[in-house]
């Protein structure tokens, strides 16, 4: 049942997209083969961070699109990916077999991924999108991965969502075989994410079997992590497993700020040392802790706070999410779990557009030299008002994120030379110079919103924060 993934077929799929979306477009009987689409180089672990094929540091700027393969057609997928590429996202997390938000039925082309179970996958001969008999569920997933790569976006692929499915759909008996199928098909063109909003207690071996199958099917090194239940880390179960290349935490959708801090700090300190990121922080416009109003919905500030806290605490990047986008809610497809609004409109939500400023800030400095630096701020505070700082190991720069615009004391003596400072606005990406002295100084943000103090060793000649280096 397993069949090798054919890149040349993908090229034809991508070439045929425009024609498949229009009934008037002629379909030539023997299409001329198109050039094979350029793929993205595999990501690799380098200490606490990732690099691309050229060895350049890779700052993960992810979006959450769990239900995309089942709920979007090709035109909608193109719109989604174009928008996220324009906004600076370079990773999209999605699920091959997702049981929520209406994604457990057939996809938009009427195809299902399997018949009786994972031992009976619904795979057909051919991959022509103009031929409904040939273009199956997995061909459409191929198309999504290829479309993302064309836009410079890597897919973080969950082969199966754990919640509601681990131990039932995917088991110790079939996980290895299914892993070989998807590993052969997608190899190192995706980042593999096992789990899916679930504890691994008692089912650890299911995931070990799936990881072994993926590695066997791929026939080469692949990048694998595990997406846990809220307030937990993959390191809680798989810290020593050799297949787990990077850790993932789920900060979750509550305002348990101190719990989240402990999970992130523990993951950073986990042995052996591995890169980590928050793969599911609080989503934008999500009901707080799953409660209905009047408790309210999360704000752009909530999202920015989780992002800067995590990255300045040593994460390799960050994954954003919007509650209406991951499930692609529309007026014709009722929203699940308290989501509101239309996914197309939600693509333009404030915090989603602001994640590019975090990426630009980190890429304007040698961010792979950064590490958590709680001692550079005299009083970091706690809860929602906590200040999180990071500092380059060689003292080239330091940054401190302050959520509430309060004045604070910072030790500029932690720099390797005389200080040059800016206030970086995480809402707009603009940097404003700030005059500072030496040693321990008190700094006051421009207003009572959230800000980032960026202080550099002036002799290093860095550009303004967020500007291309």
Name its key features.
469 residues; alpha/beta; TIM Barrel; Immunoglobulin-like; six-stranded parallel β-sheet; six-stranded antiparallel β-sheet; 12 helices; disordered N terminus
In short:
By secondary structure, the protein is an alpha/beta fold. It is built from twelve helices and 20 strands.
List the helices and strands and how they pair.
Blueprint: H1 7-15, H2 17-20, E1 44-46, E2 49-51, E3 57-58, E4 60-64, H3 68-71, H4 74-86, E5 91-95, H5 137-150, E6 154-158, H6 175-186, E7 190-195, H7 204-218, E8 224-227, E9 232-233, H8 235-238, E10 247-250, H9 257-269, E11 276-278, H10 300-312, E12 317-320, H11 343-346, H12 350-363, E13 370-372, E14 388-392, E15 397-402, E16 408-411, E17 419-424, E18 431-434, E19 440-443, E20 451-457
Parallel strand pairs: 4-5, 4-12, 5-6, 6-7, 7-8, 10-11
Antiparallel strand pairs: 1-2, 2-3, 9-10, 13-14, 14-15, 15-20, 16-19, 17-18, 17-20
């Amino acid at each position: 049942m397993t069949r090798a993934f054919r890149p040349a077929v993908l090229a034809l799929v991508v070439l045929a997209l425009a024609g498949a979306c229009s009934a008037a477009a002629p379909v030539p009987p023997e299409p001329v083969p198109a050039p094979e689409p350029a793929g993205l180089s595999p990501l690799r672990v380098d200490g606490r961070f990732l690099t691309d094929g050229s060895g350049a540091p890779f700052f993960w700027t992810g979006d959450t699109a769990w239900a995309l393969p089942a709920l979007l057609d090709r035109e909608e997928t193109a719109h989604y990916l174009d928008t996220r590429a324009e906004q600076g996202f370079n990773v999209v997390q999605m699920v091959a077999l997702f049981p929520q938000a209406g994604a457990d039925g057939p996809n938009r082309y009427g195809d299902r991924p399997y018949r009786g179970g994972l031992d009976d996958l619904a795979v057909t001969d051919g991959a022509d999108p103009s031929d409904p008999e040939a273009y199956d569920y997995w061909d459409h997933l191929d198309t999504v991965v290829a479309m993302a790569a064309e836009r410079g976006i890597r897919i973080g692929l969950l082969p199966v969502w754990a919640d509601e499915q681990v131990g039932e759909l995917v088991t110790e008996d079939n996980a290895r075989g299914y892993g070989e199928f998807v590993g052969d098909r997608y190899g190192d063109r995706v980042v593999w994410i096992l789990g899916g909003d679930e504890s691994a207690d008692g089912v650890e071996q299911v995931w070990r079997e799936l990881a072994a199958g993926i590695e066997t099917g791929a026939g080469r090194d692949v990048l694998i992590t595990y997406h846990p239940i809220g307030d937990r880390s993959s390191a809680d179960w798989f810290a020593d497993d050799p297949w787990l290349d990077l850790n993932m935490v789920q900060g979750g959708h509550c305002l348990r700020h101190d719990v989240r801090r402990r999970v992130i700090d523990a993951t950073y300190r986990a042995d052996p040392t591995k890169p980590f990121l928050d793969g599911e922080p609080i989503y934008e416009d999500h009901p707080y802790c799953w409660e209905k109003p009047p408790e309210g919905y999360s704000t752009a500030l909530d999202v920015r706070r989780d992002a800067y806290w995590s990255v300045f605490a040593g994460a390799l990047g960050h994954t954003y999410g919007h509650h209406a986008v991951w499930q692609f809610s529309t007026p014709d497809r009722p929203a699940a779990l308290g989501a509101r609004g239309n996914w197309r409109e939600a693509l333009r939500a404030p915090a989603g557009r602001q994640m590019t400023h975090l990426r630009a800030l980190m890429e304007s400095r040698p961010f792979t030299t950064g590490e958590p630096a709680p001692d550079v701020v005299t009083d970091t505070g706690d809860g929602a008002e906590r200040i999180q700082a990071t500092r380059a190991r060689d003292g080239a720069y330091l940054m401190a994120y302050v959520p509430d615009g309060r004045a604070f004391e910072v030790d500029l003596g932690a720099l390797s030379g005389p200080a040059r400072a800016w206030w970086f606005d995480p809402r707009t990406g603009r940097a404003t110079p700030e005059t500072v002295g030496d040693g321990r100084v008190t700094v006051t943000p421009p207003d009572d919103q959230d800000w980032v103090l960026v202080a550099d060793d002036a002799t290093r000649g860095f550009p303004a924060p967020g500007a291309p280096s």
